[in-house]
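C-alpha cells please, single chain.
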Amino acid sequence: MIPSLKRVIDITGSAAALLILSPVLAIIAWRVRRELGTPVFFRQVRPGWQGRTFELVKFRTMRDTDGTDAERLTPFGRFLRASSLDELPELWNVLKGDMSLVGPRPLLVEYLALYSPEQARRHDVRPGMTGWAQVNGRNMLTWEEKFELDVWYVDHRSLWLDLRILLLTVKTVFRREGIHAQGDATMPRFRGSQPLPAGPDSLEDKV
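Here you go.
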C-alpha cells in the first residue's frame, strides 16, 4: 500500500470515527470519572514506528488503590476491556500520526531490547489499533505466534488486507474472542530470552 494513501485513510477514518462516536466517548468518560475519579484517561509511553516513542491514550479501567489487579479492575472496566471500548481514545493517536488504524499493536518500551531482529521488524510500520494478530487469536496466541503474524503483516500489507482486518475486527470484538490468555487476565509479560526483574504486573500495561 502507498504510505501516503494509508495515512489519508487513517486521518479520514479516525476523524470521522471521533466525530460519530463523540457521544459514546462522552458517556464513557462520564462513567469512568464517576467510578474512578480523575484522570479519566490512562496514558503510557509506547514504542511506535522505528521504535520511536509516543504517549498512548486509553480509558482508565482500574481504581487507583492498593490491592491486586483483579480487585482494582471495576465491573465497568471489565466491560470496557472485553468490548475494546477502552481503546477508543487511541483514535486521537491515529489522527496525530502516532498510530494507524491497522498495524501491530504497540507494546511496552521494555520489550524493545528483548526482540529478535526478525521480531523487531514489527516496528517497520506504525502500530495499529487492531492488527493481523488481533483477528487471528488475539490474546489466545503465544507471543511468538503474535510476532510472526505481525511480521507477516509488515511483509504483506495492502489496502485490501487492512479492510479485511477492520471487518474481522468487528466480528472479533462482537464475539469477544481471544480476550484472555490461558491463566491470565490478558497476556503474560513477554520475557524474550532475557529475564525481566520480578515485580507485580499491571493489567493497564498489557495489550
